[in-house]
Design brief:
The complex is a heterodimer of chains A (about 250) and B (about 300). Chain A has a single domain, classed as Aldolase class I (TIM Barrel). Chain A has nine helices and eight strands. In chain A, helix 4 links the parallel strand 4 and strand 5. In chain A, helix 4 packs parallel to helix 5 and helix 7 packs parallel to helix 9. The longest helix of chain A is centred in the C-terminal third of the chain and has 21 residues. Chain A is globular and about 85 Å long. With about 300 residues, chain B is of the alpha/beta class. Chain B has two domains: about 170 residues, Rossmann fold (3-Layer(aba) Sandwich); about 140 residues, D-Amino Acid Oxidase, subunit A, domain 2 (D-Amino Acid Oxidase, Chain A, domain 2), CATH 3.30.9.10. In chain B, strands 5-6-4-11-12-13-10-14 form an eight-stranded mixed sheet, covered by helices on one side. In chain B, strand 15 and strand 16 form a beta hairpin. In chain B, helix 1 packs parallel to helix 6, helix 1 packs parallel to helix 8 and helix 4 crosses helix 8. Chain B is globular, with a radius of gyration of 20 Å. Classes of the chains: A alpha/beta (about 250), B alpha/beta (about 300). Chains A and B meet through helix 1 and helix 2 of A and helix 5 and strand 10 of B.
Chain lengths: ~250, ~300
């Protein structure tokens, strides 16, 4: 449950960098996604034509504060997003470094506290640091979005041990792996580990065929979640015969 | 009489194609600055295929020939595509998404890139030109053929007004583009060079005499105001990454245009009532206008033959 909302599909899609709004619409449709994230910082009030196009998709909109480098900028952008989209949902992104696009955890917690107090339902883009996660929950967030790898890098779950720890530490908190996912197998891996959803953009938008890639990610996320719920077998050090040898006929 | 509304690249190409078939045509110009005034002037259908659909690549296939037949400023020099060492994955992606290129040592094509980039994709069939000179040339040719420019239309309307036609085409939207023109006499490039970057890709088109056009942002916005500081910083940093002497360049001009775009970003001819629209050129005005103009002119001249 994400702030009381149950989702059928656990794939969340970004809407930037597609060849056209028409390709984006098709990718959204075939992926089965129910949540799309949209930026506002750079487009501003002049971007209404594009926003109207994607609002027509029927997907739930998760506006984001991409491109914001300070808590103040992110808070202003969140307020604009609430006005434009009529939703309390906000994907809170406060970038700490222009080159690595690493989140600034200090400004993130500060902005989250202000926005949660103001009635926003905040989805914070954070690292896999447990203490930052706790501070975000303390600030009022009910979802955490740890990175898999730096934005747009396609490196997958770069520190899967830390993500595994995070999953165990925040049992019961909805966790979304956001950023860095490059291949459907990596999205499936996150879902198998018990994450509640994955959010990605570049891997689909910049694929040679974005629509086919969107379909692939939709299937991978479903498969990963199904596998997690079905109970994955633990890995073993030794071979274990699946057919018992005891009692077999001796044909000597 | 056909009245072509709009004197941007689309209107000029349509008026030219109609006039060349002997159809009576006039140009209706409100004196506004068309989006094509800010264009790069790349005639690069294969490179555009990186993100454009195959229809656009097909429409643009003969664009450079069309312009060459009418304008003597088309430079058939091909396109070079490079990426900084740490962004080589972008070059691989570009090569997979496009056709009719080969991998070369860029220094063999542009000596100024010596030691800066070890690999490039070369698209030998592409060309570039100065779009403003090309439009002036079409205007002069139209005047020579007796095509007059008027303020009020008298004939059947062919609407090529770009974004201004939003009043008739509700699905037309703006995609903001920002560009700059610099004078960098220390840089010597003879062909379009595209620098790939995951966030700030840019292209540099030589205009001759040390002038270079650097473009262009793509922002889903109809805000027509001046170039943003962010766009300036990003494009100049990208140009600097291409060649450090761009840091010493003089910024001659900056500009912002609003590209008229349909939801699929594919230009088209549309008939609504008695009005024919040629619109939605997105970032492909110089590349696709010749094809659409010729298609429309063929159709109208056939109709005229059947009618008589």
């Amino acid at each position: 449950m994400f702030y009381g909302v149950e989702l059928g599909s656990r794939l969340m899609l970004g809407t930037a960098q597609y060849p056209s709004p028409a390709v984006l619409a098709k990718a959204m449709e075939v992926s089965g996604t129910e949540v799309i994230t949209v930026s506002l910082r750079r487009e501003g009030s002049g971007g209404s034509a594009f926003r109207d196009l994607i609002a027509g998709s029927g997907c739930r909109i998760l506006p984001n504060t991409a491109g914001c480098h300070t808590a103040k900028e992110a808070i202003t952008t969140a307020h604009m997003a609430r006005e434009v989209f009529g939703t309390n949902w906000i994907k809170l992104e406060v970038i700490g470094h222009a080159d690595t696009l690493q989140p600034d955890p200090f400004a993130l917690v500060e902005a989250a506290r202000v926005l949660c107090a103001d009635g926003f339902e905040v989805f914070p883009y954070t690292t896999d640091d447990l203490i930052v996660g706790e501070k975000l929950l303390d600030a009022g967030c009910q979802v955490l979005m740890p990175w898999g790898a730096p934005i747009g890098s396609g490196q997958g779950l770069r520190n899967s041990a830390a993500l595994k720890t995070m999953r165990a530490h925040f049992a019961g908190v909805p966790l979304v792996v956001d950023a860095g996912i490059g291949a459907p197998s990596q999205a499936a891996q996150a879902m198998e580990m018990g994450f509640d959803a994955v959010l990605l953009n570049t891997a689909v938008a910049k694929a040679v065929d974005p629509v086919a890639m969107a379909r692939a990610f939709g299937m991978a996320v479903s498969a990963g979640r199904l596998a997690h719920d079905a109970g994955l077998m633990p890995a073993r050090d030794m071979a274990a015969a699946s057919t018992p040898i005891f009692g077999m006929a001796e044909l000597a | 009489m056909y009245s072509v509304l709009g004197a941007g690249v689309t209107g000029l190409c349509v008026a030219t194609a109609l006039s060349e078939r002997g159809l009576p045509v006039e140009l209706v110009d409100d004196g506004g600055i068309p989006a094509s005034h800010w264009a790069g002037g790349m005639l690069a259908p294969m490179c555009e295929g990186e993100s454009a659909p195959p229809e656009v690549v097909r429409m643009g296939k003969h664009a450079a020939d069309w312009w060459s037949a009418r304008f003597d400023g088309v430079a058939w020099r091909g396109t070079l595509v490079v990426a900084p060492p740490r962004d080589q994955a972008e070059l691989l992606r570009f090569s997979r998404a496009t056709r009719r290129h080969h991998t070369v040592d860029p220094a063999e094509y542009e000596a100024d890139l010596q030691g800066r980039f070890t690999r490039a994709l070369y698209f030998p069939e592409e060309a570039h030109m100065d779009p403003r000179a090309a439009m002036s040339c079409l205007r002069a040719r139209l005047a020579e053929r007796g095509v007059v420019t008027v303020e009020r239309p008298k004939g059947q309307i062919i609407d090529c007004r770009g974004l201004a036609a939003r009043d008739q085409l509700p699905d037309l939207r703006a995609v903001r583009g920002e560009m700059l023109l610099v004078h960098a006499p220390d840089v010597n490039l003879s062909r379009t060079v595209r620098l790939l970057h995951p966030r700030f890709p840019c292209y540099v088109v030589p205009r001759g005499d040390g002038l270079y056009m650097i473009g262009a942002t793509m922002i889903e916005s109809d805000e027509a105001g001046p170039i943003s500081a962010r766009a300036l910083v990003e494009m100049l940093s990208a140009a600097y990454a291409l060649h450090p002497a761009f840091a010493e360049a003089q910024v001659i001009e900056t500009g912002t245009g609003l590209r008229p775009s349909f939801p699929d970003n594919i230009p088209c001819i549309r008939e609504i009532g008695s009005r024919i629209h040629v619109n939605g050129m997105y970032r492909h005005g110089f590349l696709t206008s010749p094809y659409l103009a010729e298609t429309l002119a063929d159709r109208l001249s056939n109709e005229m033959k059947h009618a008589s």
